[in-house]
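Ligand-bound model needed. zinc ion.
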Amino acid sequence: MAGEPFPVYLLESWGTEFPGVVAGITEAAPGADFSATRTEACSFHERLEQLAAQLGFQSVAWTRQLHGCEVRRVDPLAVGLFAPGEADGLYVCRRGILLLVMVADCVPVYLFDSAGHGTALLHAGWRGASAGILGRGIAALGEAYGTSPRELRVHLGPAICGECYEVGGEVLQAFGHARQLGGKVDLREELAGQALSLGVPADAVTRSSWCTRCHLDRFHSHRGSQGSAGRMAAFLGSREAN
Ligand SMILES: [Zn+2]
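Prediction:
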């Protein structure tokens, strides 16, 4: 395997409660840029393979992200590197496949069905969040695997915090706020509210306290770098039983 292991932040509580579940995000470090457009395709693929191997997976799925609200099912027979097209969310119900989304300020949203083991991972910036990607992800798990929102765990990962995220009036309006002139939006607060209104129990929704912009030493931040940042890879999967 090439190079040093990528520094990763793991959501340890899920791994403890659900053996085999691996949820987390890579941290910013030299050589740990998961931007598909900024790195050579071959080195991008090598990084994906290295990350998957580091986390104990043989298959890894990602998408070309559009800041939309499309979610795609990953072929449960997928093997190796697998990109099911353009979307901002992926879901699967099979062990051994690692789902990835790339983020730098946008919220990685982790969904895990504690009863049926369906998993979904979403990329939610303001466009996707306000367009309802969380609802699409929850509905997709329900349709595909019969997942009930009552059984879901939702984690909102490291992202830009409400204090750091100044936005224009169109963003506030997209979230249904009356203010016209702009202000601040806390994306994780918005998404947590959506999760509750979609039937996820309050104690099943957790939020990272890390802000990508407040902690530029640890994370890539689009805002914090004036747009020149790399991308972190958020990941979610269930390891095959040994
Ligand atoms: Zn912040």
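The radius of gyration is 17 Å.
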